[in-house]
Design goal:
By secondary structure, this protein is α+β, with helices and mostly antiparallel strands. Helices cover 46% and strands 13% of the residues. The chain folds into 3 domains: 30-486, no CATH class; 503-611; 630-762, Sandwich (Jelly Rolls). It starts with 13 loop residues before the first helix and ends in a 5-residue tail after the last strand.
Amino acid sequence: MTSPDQSTAPSIGHRAFVLSGAFYTVLGLAVTFPLVLNLSSVVPHDPGDPLLSTAILWWNAHVLPFTDRWWNGFAFYPAPGFLAFSDPRLGESLIATPLQWLGCSPVTAYNLTLLATYPLSALAAHWLGFVLTKRHDAAAIAGLAYGFCPFRVSHLPHLELLAGFGIPAALAALHLWKETQRRFWLAVFAIAVVVQGLCSSYYVVFSSVLLALWLLWFPRRSDLRALPAFLLACACALVALLPLAFGYRRIHAFYGLTRGFEEISRYSADLTSLLTAHPMVLLWGWTARWAKPEGELFPGATIAVLALVGTILAWRRPVARDRLDRRSLWLLPVAWICATIAYWGWAYPPWRFAMAGMSASSSAPFKPLTVALLAIAAWVGASSRMRGAYARRSPLAFYAIATIILFLCSLGPKPAVAGHQFLYEAPYGWLMHLPVFSSIRVPARFGALAVLTLAITASLAFNRLPFTGSTRGALAAALLLGIVADGWISHLPLPQVPVLWDASRADGFAAVLELPLGDVGDDLAATYRVIGHQHPIVNGSSGFEPTHYFTLRTALEERDPAALDGLPATGRVLVVINKRHDQNLSWDRFLTANPRVMRLQPDDRWAFYALEPPSPDAAPCTGERVPIVSIVDDEGKDDVAVLTDGNPRTWWAGRRAQRVGDSLVLDLGGARHPCAVTVAVGEFRINYPRTLLVESSLDGSAWTTVATRRMAGLVMKAALDDPTQVAVSIPLAPSTARFVRLRVNETHQRIAWLVTDVTVRTARGGE
């Protein structure tokens, strides 16, 4: 099928693709220079996410994917499911794994994989542009604009986001299937989707929106008979990705991992993000002063201007107006009135106007602006030009519209400009009603797809320009130079990879703990050093953290003697300290005060310690659960319903930081023989008493201590057993009691005491 937006120029053949790929490869080396000269000793941009990606790629090359061992990974020991806390980068491992098997170091394999994403992304977009225009000069505009855009510079540490070559390849295959009806191209489409899904979960989820738009635009009624073949290709791709999806679902459900609305809004782009580039972008880095997290979406001036000019020229093409054009004109004054109301709401608040049952105010100016924009969109959609574009299935119109929609999605559920909301409801807000989108943290990454569709729009716009021969060639060369200049990197940082310690030191140990723990840089360095000693580490850093890790980090920061009691009793742990971080020997004193720690022979840079496993816990009490009649705090407040409903989202909390003597008194309604009390903290895993005293009494006046426990290690173990409830079970000494009192036995300067649930159990047969 050839549309009026496509040229009928003949194909130049495969040789042009080979030359284009070689050019994109050389350009990728030049843009990131001198990375190519230091492949085995540095990582680009920063020693953060690149070290995590390096370690994950190493893991993927040595462990069979989708096994329990693979999912559990090598960090956050002993918590399971580490690979599901981030993208497992299996698609990128299709490149990195063979390189490692051929003898490349993990760092070299990472750097070569990163460099490969430049020509692969550019060549995939080039292919899509060529399918639509049948010309390589126009296709090169798409390839360069997508493969070397400023957006990629801001995500240089994120290998999974650089590997976006599956999306344009899938679209190219779809267009070829539409033209030829050959099922071969559906197979290529399915493979491209699977590869993209293995590279980046963000992109495969976000691309579902683009594919849905494609299905709404391009197929005609006559194509419906081919729809089952397309659905079969989608089903095959889905089945291939099911092991990854089920693994994510299982592990995220176990931990109760979600993203809050505020977090999603924080990582949404701002409208000003479209004009904001990363500081390393040579020409446009000065705009970074207005950037917000994940908010550097500037696509490049050259393709933006080219796409805009081409779209305007296409819109101005003479068409015959009809009755619907005239009837839709009333939408323009409606848009003008609503936009005026919105402007006055922002510029001159507060005010309110009411007349004839209608009212307007300055309280929410984004509402009338939303109506104004919807009225304009309806006017454009009803126009004969747009209806004609849809009738022709114009690729230019489709990719221009898709660019607008995808950029709107990148703005998240509450689109804002300079921090001020300007839309009442937004496309991403609608998407959040779907389960997958409600748990994705960074809507701003829709910007990658928007850059792709903008690049294709620019390519199609260039193809429509009325130039031929040398004039066309000169213009193409100028545009290509402009695109490269827009995304050129200035002074790419190339930090050295962390030094390794003697791997033989870890022999005979079950795991490794590097101190200090909790700093992102130190934890990622420890993650990278797994490649050397090949033991699981207690440290970790990723998109999510297991529930126990925050407790461990807090307890170590406080030098809590029970900080290491939550580690399993299955084997010794090697503790490693970088002496540079312990010049006052505070960590040394903390460790050696623990009777289970033995100091080992240090070297010039590192100190080593052997942490013996703790004694196995006593068997838990399995008696019957005792009904609690009332629960009273120090202020006489009864919270029995809140604390016995089994819901971790309801809780009792102290009104101030913990103090010695703060208490909760549980009335069991009569004399019982309590053998255990369970105190849950849910997601509030640092709001536990540092030391908890449990007392029992028959009359509520004379109290007997039945348990005293330091809580840090117990909370860690509870978080490992049940990350959503985090319920700590404390065995009690035998007693007969009607009342059980929980008392804080250690003051904390900042953190309040919080409890989500309490249960008491009696010895079997006890009353």
